[in-house]
Amino acid sequence: MSDILVNVENISKHFDKTIAVNEISLNIKAGEIVALIGPNGAGKSTTMRIITGFLQPDSGNVLIKNMNMLKNSYECKKNIGYLAEVSGIYQDLTTREYLEFIANAYNLSDIDSKIIEVSKLTRIGKSLDKTLENLSKGMKQRVFLAGSLIHNPDILVLDEPTEGLDPNQKQEMQTLLKKLAEDKKAILLSTHVLEEVSNICSRVIVISDGKILADETPKKKKKRAGDMNKSFAELTKETK
Ligand SMILES: Nc1ncnc2c1ncn2[C@@H]1O[C@H](COP(=O)(O)OP(=O)(O)OP(=O)(O)O)[C@@H](O)[C@H]1O
Ligand SMILES: [Mg+2]
Questions:
Q1: CB of 84 closer than 6 angstroms to any ligand 1 atom
Q2: 102 is in which domain, residue-wise?
């Protein structure tokens, strides 16, 4: 069996006159951590929303383990954990209630032990009985990550998972993602932090104006960019 878990074939998406995603194709294998980088408005979140089945493309296909997202969205979605860009809902639930809600949505059994399992993995045990609105940004991010892991998906799509985290929390999140990749999960994440790309990603896809400009290993990108601390504007310009 092929270890390609995500296959994106030529997807496009317009919003009125804006082309948010313009003929993007990519694939992600088990064990890979692929970074999606590019300036604000490049189309990263829109691409991720299409891959996770929350938005339909105007054209093109998304295959999850060879199943078509448009034709078989329930089966496809069961294989995906999605950390969305804006997770401002459910603020008055406790962490435990939030995780129970997600687990019920996936029709899981043995919910209590699954909550304990993801709590250990994401280290949110102390926050289980606090309401989400009372958690720090970093802790909330970990709770949402726990929610995206509770059904043990093989594919993770994480929209800026380390955004707003302090340096320690960032590093913890990166360590966790590496561990998940070692467990053969396929991970697609978006980021504005180039250091993160070089630390944990096996591949980097640069997009700008909805188009892929480069799809390569960070090492090669580093060599070409010369300096990983360059701004994204410079980096994306360089690849044009
Ligand atoms: N629901 C929407 N309605 C109209 N336009 C949208 C919508 N969602 C995204 N867009 C537009 O599509 C383009 C791509 O947006 P997207 O959110 O995918 O970018 P991004 O790469 O995630 O940016 P950022 O780095 O700021 O998160 C932008 O021009 C944006 O304004
Ligand atoms: Mg975005």
A1: no
A2: 88-152
Q: With bands split at pLDDT 50, 70 and 90, how would you rate the model's confidence at 4?
A: very high
Q: Which ligand is nearest to the CA of 22?
A: 1
User: Using a 6 Å cutoff on CB, does residue 41 contact ligand 1?
Assistant: yes
Q: For residue 40, which ligand has an atom nearest its CA?
A: 1
Residue with CA nearest ligand 1 atom 6: 15
* Chain segment 15-31, per-residue pLDDT in tens: 999 999 999 999 999 99
**Structure confidence at residue 181 as a pLDDT band (50, 70, 90):** very high
Which of these three, 97, 128, 152, is where a domain ends?
Answer: 152
Give me the pLDDT at residue 21, please: 98
Last residue of a domain, one of 97, 117, 152: 152
DSSP bridge pairs for 204: 35, 216
pTM of this prediction? 0.91
Atom of ligand 1 lying closest to residue 47 CA: 18
Nearest ligand 1 atom, CA 36:
21
Say whether both 137 and 109 belong to one domain.
yes
Asked if residue 207 has its Cβ within 6 Å of ligand 1, the reply is no
Tell me, yes or no, whether 160 and 235 share the same domain.
yes
